[in-house]
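quick q for whoever's on today - can somebody do inverse folding on this one?? i tried earlier but teh output was garbage lol. tokens:
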């Protein structure tokens, strides 16, 4: 999809961000502002502001002569990403579980059904939104600032899931989502936090199995021991 040259920097940012997260613009690629403006049909002024936003988010790196590099996927970045996700969400789910209503639980069950539907059709694009909403409902009570940060980290993790998660299966993932939801339904926030961390550590094992099998996840291990001790055995 191209954007016309009059588009706001917000729209330009959203389009470029989506292209980076999906891999449409490859990680590590070096390009120029002129090339991006032509490729996406946008003006230079909104493009520059969009790139500044992406730089603050850590998705692009500014280089001399109006050139930019798309941030590479790396073991250090991946570990920091999952340190932040697990630390924030293990706390946020503990805050959220006690305030969930029967309507909230019904919504979570419905989102599970939607995920099942899309995965039976092998529609990974369709699956993405109910999956995002499922995880959002588990942590929303921590507040909008926390939720916004969690949502951003969810998107960053998508770069790694898409690149290194090919060996994954929906059957195992479904069981993990179901276990989290059962703990939430029982009002057991400690178990919910441990199961959520375990769910993310499943992804960590897949990512690092391909990205950097020898990387020492000491910082992540310490984080999990503090915020979700019941899941610490799941990390090497």
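ok took a stab at it. sequence:
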């Amino acid at each position: 999809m191209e954007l016309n040259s009059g588009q706001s920097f917000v729209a330009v940012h959203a389009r470029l961000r989506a292209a980076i997260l999906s891999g449409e613009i490859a990680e590590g690629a070096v390009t120029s502002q002129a090339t991006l403006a032509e490729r996406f049909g946008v003006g230079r002024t909104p493009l520059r502001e969009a790139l500044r936003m992406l730089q603050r988010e850590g998705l692009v790196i500014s280089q001399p002569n109006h050139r930019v590099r798309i941030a590479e996927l790396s073991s250090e970045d991946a570990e920091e990403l999952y340190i932040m996700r697990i630390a924030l969400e293990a706390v946020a789910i503990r805050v959220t579980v006690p305030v969930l209503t029967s309507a909230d639980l019904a919504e979570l069950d419905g989102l599970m059904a939607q995920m099942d539907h899309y995965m039976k059709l092998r529609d990974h694009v369709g699956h993405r939104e109910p999956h995002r909403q499922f995880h959002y409902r588990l942590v929303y009570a921590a507040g909008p600032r926390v939720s916004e940060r969690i949502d951003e980290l969810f998107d960053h993790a998508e770069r790694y899931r898409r690149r290194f998660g090919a060996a994954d299966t929906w059957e195992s993932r479904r069981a993990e989502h179901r276990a989290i939801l059962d703990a939430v339904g029982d009002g057991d926030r400690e178990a919910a936090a441990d199961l959520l961390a375990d769910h993310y550590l499943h992804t960590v094992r897949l990512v690092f199995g391909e990205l950097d099998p020898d990387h020492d996840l000491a910082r992540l291990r310490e984080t999990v021991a503090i915020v979700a001790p019941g899941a610490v055995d799941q990390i090497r």
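fwiw Strands lie at 30-32, 60-63, 67-70. also The domain at 75-234 is CATH 1.20.120.530 (Four Helix Bundle (Hemerythrin (Met), subunit A)). so keep that in mind when u check it
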